[in-house]
Amino acid sequence: MAIMKQYLNLIFTLSFLFFSHLHCSTTSAQSPAPAPPGPPDIIKILEKANQYTIFIRLLKSTQVSDRLIGELKDADDGKTIFAPTDKAFSNLKSGALNALNDEQRVELVLYHVVPIYIPLNQFQTVSNPMRTQAGDSGDGEFPLNVTTAAGNTVTLMTGLTKTRVAGTIYADGQLAIYRVDRVLEPLQVFASRSSGPAPAPGKSRKAADVAENSKAWSLVLHNLALFAVCVIAFALSL
Ligand SMILES: *[C@@H]1O[C@H](CO)[C@@H](O)[C@H](O)[C@H]1NC(C)=O
Predict the structure, then answer these.
(1) In this protein, which residues make up the domain named FAS1 (predicted)?
(2) Fewer CB within 10 Å: N-end or C-end of the chain?
(3) Residues 60/65/70/72 CA torsion (nearest 10 deg)
């Protein structure tokens, strides 16, 4: 009888060990999840189109490209991107790009992104000023106006820049990327230059950082808690 009891005890202990081990290893293997067939790769599309090295560099260094991929994954209203060519950047006043701080670089890139998919023949349906992902489209902020003419001629006006949509690089019903031969210069970034220091970083971005940080912390805490549970389970099973 005593042997039987010991035997049962052993089985119980072993299975407990096995399951707690299983739990620990499955939870630690949880992240990162395998990537599902994702949205179109903006960077690859631009690389293939060949004359967008500066815009690509900006998209990457500001991490806007990662952000857009995330947003496209969430399958919202899609995106429209106006991609300035390298020549467009070289036509900026010399040193203009280097003079921007990180915040302004992000704003400049986001100003070239509209948070809806707009087919080339639908720009006449857009009401002015169009809202870009740089934010406020109010006067002196980030307004972007569009006018259309026959033959899909689309003209973009920022208050500083006036240029046409020069071609379609990509369009799939969710993401449209159009070529522009001028960098779209937002008033907020380029007009306020001579009138004092750069504007303070936006509140919204700070809030986003805080949210990001607390998310990271809760993940750490979660993992610590799991680790503790695993350790206790392991200790109990000995
Ligand atoms: C953009 O359009 C709005 C509304 O029509 C107008 O008030 C504003 O002056 C325009 N801005 C530019 C730069 O064209």
Answers:
(1) 39-184
(2) N
(3) -170
Q: What is the pLDDT of residue 139?
A: 83
Amino acid at 184: L
Classified by CATH at the fold level, domain 42-200 comes out as: FAS1 domain (2.30.180)
Check if 160 has its Cβ closer than 6 Å to any atom of ligand 1: no
Question: Ligand 1 centroid to 157 CA: how many Å?
Answer: 8
Shortest-distance atom of ligand 1 to CA 145? 1
Please indicate whether residue 157, judged by its CB atom, sits closer than 6 Å to ligand 1.
yes
The protein residue with its alpha carbon nearest to ligand 1, atom 12, reads: 159
* Dist. CA 59–CA 139, nearest whole Å: 26
What end-to-end distance do the CA atoms of the chain give, in Å?
A: 23
Q: Which residues, in sequence order, are bridge partners of residue 82?
A: 178
Q: Position of tokens 């990180």?
A: 102
Amino acid 121: pLDDT: 93
| pLDDT at residue number 17 | 43
Locate 61 and state its tokens: 């260094």
Q: Whose CA is nearest to atom 8 of ligand 1?
A: 129
- Domain residue extents for the chain: 2-30+211-237, 42-200
Instruction: Name the maximum alpha-carbon separation found in the chain.
Output: 95
